[in-house]
Write a structure and sequence with these properties.
It contains 5 helices and no strands. Helix 2 packs antiparallel against helix 3 and helix 4 runs antiparallel to helix 5. The model has no long low-confidence stretch (mean pLDDT 81). The protein has one domain. The longest helix has 30 residues. With 154 residues, the protein is an all-alpha fold.
């Protein structure tokens, strides 16, 4: 049976496969060129940022400081999820998230400082964990920020 409800027109009223007269043709071509050109170099930093956030979220259970540092458990879980969500957003919508790349740097710096602010006399393992993970978040966030600013200029 044939589909008699289809008129062969798109929502703008154009027929056929030629889109040169489509009102959004230039915008669609520009977006296609941006996607195909491969200029999105922050993709190499998105995955490590996601892994840093994921590890930060589970680190209280990996290092077993859930009993003696309950405030840091909640803190690391929330900060880790925030870093991981930002990394996923960079992957899904890189053109909209370029201004948010410095948020990862801020979260990493806060993760370093918060070890002494939130924790109650943390031991060496907790300190090293949060300083290393926070440092990685600062470095990778700065790399994302630098690459996104570089891409914005071109």
């Amino acid at each position: 049976m044939s589909n008699i409800s289809h008129t062969g027109r798109d929502v703008s009223g154009h027929t056929g496969r030629d889109i040169s007269g489509h009102p959004d043709a230039d915008e669609m071509r520009a977006r296609h060129d941006r996607v195909i050109s491969g200029r999105r170099t922050t993709a190499m930093a998105d995955a490590p940022v996601f892994l840093v956030g994921l590890y930060c979220a589970v680190s209280p259970w990996v290092l077993h400081f859930t009993a003696n540092q309950p405030d840091l458990v909640t803190h690391n879980l929330v900060i880790g999820i925030a870093i991981a969500v930002l990394a996923l957003c960079f992957t899904a919508m890189p053109e909209r998230m370029t201004g948010m790349s410095m948020a990862i740097v801020a979260l990493g710096a806060w993760l370093i400082v918060s070890t002494w602010v939130v924790g109650q006399s943390p031991d060496t393992g907790v300190i090293l964990n949060n300083v290393i993970v926070g440092g990685l978040a600062v470095v990778l966030g700065a790399a994302c920020a630098g690459l996104s600013m570089k891409n914005k200029k071109t």
